[in-house]
Design a protein that fits this description.
The protein contains 13 helices and 20 strands. The strands form 4 sheets. Strands 3, 4, 5, 6, 7, 8, 9, 10, 11, 12, 13 and 14 form a 12-stranded mixed beta sheet that branches.
Length: about 425
């Protein structure tokens, strides 16, 4: 870890790189992209072959399957997939994450899709990540003395390197006993709390029960889709004015919330092309303009983002996102009254359930044509009726047939990312 590199990136992101206009952002992106493509032509067998015949705009899209199958040819640091995978799996099974391949950190990511991914980052990239994250998460004003608590499914030196004399860091393993975790968290007294929404809900429950009385300065939701239902509960129980988000995945540090709680794409370091799904929603195609050990170039994420239409009061020219709605593949398909297939985005049906009550935890899974399985932590006549009424009202508004509903008990599983809406029936059809 180089504290100088971390400090340099922190200062650049926080103070020296304002990028107040779209023109300034696009100039920086063009400059970084030109340099990146020159590097890839020399150092990546995969991209070197492609760029000999094609322009950037004509490069084929990447996804997790391409990354895994061509890992050895894509990465530029000579790390073999089998070696990296073996080390990452060994670290995961032992729940010890301090072993690297030389100066490179490796790790696994299941992603919201559940398919295993593999990442490798260099020491310089790790330091830049730390500096950027700290610049975008530490509260304005006092920068020293913060205690950052991270609840993660896998620790890594990527995260551990956050710790320094100025900022203390503690990793909490989500596989550990949560009651013990919460007791340790209370003793740690975090000023900044970072955790998946499913974990934040458990901490919120503990706060409501008087078992957690710490009020962090900022709380960040990561790794899972943050539903309005969950955000309201967490914000209230943890004494926050607003709940912040970090949009971070194997493919990079993609977005953060500004002081006004609005999500902004980190377009000073990434280029985002848009594959529109409708007038508001798009799937991002991401190019990380600075990541070189494992290049991310025209990578189709498969997430559904909804762009904000009104300007953000913070004044930045970085693209504002209204919501990260979930996986494109988890869009439900209902049958229209005219027989056509009607896509129902995850955000649409979760918002409908805001009006139902009698339960805290839920999951909606499509298990057949016009058939939904509803998992609730409280399954009784009242909750069934409320959910059925709201789903029926939504179907009416969308001009769809009312789907059949099957109710089951909600069983939490901390070993996988929480998905409130799951498309479990067939492949994408629209």
């Amino acid at each position: 870890m180089s504290r100088l590199r971390i400090l340099r990136e922190f200062a650049a992101v926080r103070w020296l790189r304002p990028l107040r206009t779209r023109a300034a952002i696009e100039r920086r992106q063009r400059r970084l992209l030109r340099a990146h493509l020159r590097f890839l032509r020399r150092r990546s067998r995969y991209f070197g072959d492609l760029l000999a015949m094609r322009s950037f705009a004509d490069l084929p899209l990447m996804d997790k399957s391409v990354m895994m199958s061509r890992f050895d040819d894509i990465n530029t640091v000579g790390v073999g997939r089998d070696d990296a995978l073996a080390l990452a799996i060994a670290n995961e099974r032992a729940r010890e994450f301090d072993l690297d391949l030389g100066s490179h950190s490796v790790g696994l990511s299941s992603g919201t899709s559940g398919h295993r991914g593999l990442f490798v980052v260099s020491a310089a990239e790790r330091d830049a990540w730390v500096g950027a994250v700290l610049a975008r998460t530490l509260p304005r004003g006092a920068l020293l003395g913060h205690r950052i608590a991270l609840f993660l499914r896998a620790d890594n030196t990527l995260y551990e390197s956050v710790g320094s004399a100025a900022v203390s860091f503690r990793y909490f393993d989500v596989y550990a006993d949560m009651a013990e975790n919460i007791a340790a968290l209370r003793s740690f007294g975090p000023t900044i709390l970072v955790a998946p929404p499913s974990v934040l809900r458990l901490i919120a429950h503990a706060a409501d029960a008087g078992e957690f009385d710490v009020v962090p300065q900022k709380v960040y939701a990561v790794a899972e889709v943050l539903e309005v239902f969950d955000a309201q509960r967490i914000t209230r129980s943890l004494g926050q004015e607003r709940l912040h988000q970090l949009y971070q995945c194997t493919e990079g540090f993609l977005a953060h919330t500004c002081p006004h709680g609005v999500i902004h794409l980190n377009e000073d370091d990434i280029l985002v092309e848009r594959e529109y799904l409708d007038a508001e929603r798009f799937t991002p195609i991401v190019t990380d303009l600075r990541r070189r050990a494992q290049p991310i170039v025209r990578y189709r994420l498969g997430d559904v983002l909804r762009e904000r239409t009104s300007p953000c009061p913070c004044g930045t020219a970085l693209t504002a996102i209204e919501r990260i709605e979930g996986r494109e593949g988890d869009t439900l398909i209902l049958r229209g009254l005219d027989g056509r297939e009607v896509p129902v985005f995850a955000d649409v049906i979760t918002r409908a359930l805001l009006y139902a009550d009698g339960f805290d935890e839920y999951r909606i899974t499509q298990i057949g044509e016009s058939r939904l399985q509803i998992a609730l932590d409280t399954v009784d006549d009242r909750s069934r009726r409320r959910v059925a009424d709201e789903v029926g009202a939504l179907a009416h508004r969308l001009g769809c047939e009312r789907p059949d509903l099957e109710f089951i008990g909600f069983v939490p599983d901390g070993s996988v990312k929480l998905r409130r809406v799951v498309q479990g029936w067939g492949e994408r059809r629209w």
